[in-house]
Amino acid sequence: MVRLTGGVFAMGASPEHPEEGPPRQVQVGDFWIDQTEVTNAAFARFVDATGYVTQAERPLPEAAYPGLSAEERRPASLVFVGAGAAGGNPAAWWRIIPGADWRHPEGPDSSITGKESWPVVHIGWEDALAYARWLGRDLPTEAEWEYAARGGLVGARFAWGDAPASQGEPLANTWQGVFPVADTGDDGHKARPAPVGCFPANGHGLYDITGNVWEWTSDWYRPGLLPASVLEQGGPSRAMSRDPAEPGQPKHVIKGGSFLCADNFCFRYRPAARAPGPHDSGASHVGFRTVLRVPAAPEPG
Asked: Is the pTM of this model over 0.70?
């Protein structure tokens, strides 16, 4: 982990997407944060020690999904399958595949053998929090995550400056080419995650804070940034959570973009960018890292 000294920073941005602003001056305390995304090997140690079963490995609860059959509720997770058979419908670029989970990231016939240093994926928010709690840690708040991601740069669009990842030497695992038709793989990783630590660290010494896989935060999601006083306390309540695309489904904030973020489509591999992550499931491009907060010094006297 890397220890960061807290401070006040400009969170958010004049929105490239409407949910990213308005900017707020937000204060965070001192905290430690994982230098990389949690890997398959690290998550396997947790599972071996605790016997934990992830959400993708469990059937959907009948009480929560009364309209689904047992077959429809069987363990499954969301996998990016590309545009080959999808035409122009973005919903068809993804498929819920039975048997897809953190051990089988593309489906039941795949495995993580030889991918121990890749970021673990198909991890739901509940799973990520369980891992963090096992270590006596937590998931970062959205403010902590963004403070860490900016790497000490003030006002920069990206974790390294103002030039997109598509310009110059590869700085992160993102999508090169026209999404979702073809990823040229110029960064060495074609339409898939990369082992952690393959690209330069940001100014705080953190790897893959940009691209590779989206990362869970502890905050509930709603469009736009609330006042700093709310963000400094961990964001909105569950009751305030709202995703306009699915208004009845509370969701958590995910940050950082992934290997699927392209300049021509998503463009969310910026520290200010944010997206809603479903509360009860993961996907093949979502992972996480953890934090350990430094207790505040007692008041004098």
From this structure: yes
